[in-house]
Every structure is written in structure tokens, then in C-alpha cells.
Amino acid sequence: MSALTKENREWNMYGCSEAALKEMVENSLTFRLSGPVMFVASLMSDAQEEIAHNMKEDARQTLNRAKWVLSSYIDWKASK
Question: Dihedral sign, CA of 52, 68, 31, 17?
Fold first, then answer.
């Protein structure tokens, strides 16, 4: 996959690049103080608000960001 195609896919899925998403997550006070699970809970609350305001595309991207955080920052094997 070319870099342009990857960047387009990221913008479609998350509303930003993965690099920007990683920076946003790691600079978040919630992430630094409470960890990735609480950060994901916050994103899910944001998505609920977006749904309530009929912002379906924003909600879809917010949920994709939450899934990315889960897959990138949660060690599933260690939790078993």
C-alpha cells in the first residue's frame, strides 16, 4: 500500500493520521493519569454525544479511534 493510500485510509477511518492520533493520546492528561482504558471510555462518551447530535460520521471516527487505542495500548495477553 502506498503512503498516500495509507494516509487516505487513516483520515477516512480516524479523521486524522495514526501519527497524530498517537500524539493526541500520549499528550492526553486522561491517558497519562488514568491509562488507556479510561481514555477509551472518554472517547466512547464523546461518540455517544456525537450520536445524540446526529453526527454519525464523527461518531464512527471516534469509535475507530477508541478501537485503535485498545489495539495499540492494551496488552490483552497480560490481562488473562
Answer: negative
Question: Angle at CA 12, nearest 5°, toward 73 and 40?
Answer: 30
What would the mean pLDDT of 32-51 be, rounded to a whole number?
A: 97
Number of domains in the chain: 1
pLDDT given for residue 62 in this prediction = 98
Cell of 73: 495500548
Give the per-residue pLDDT at 29. 96
Of residues 71 and 2, the one with the higher pLDDT is 71
Q: Which domain holds residue 30?
A: 3-79
* 57 close to 72: Cβ distance less than 8 angstroms: no
Nearest CA to 16 out of 68, 55, 78 is that of 68
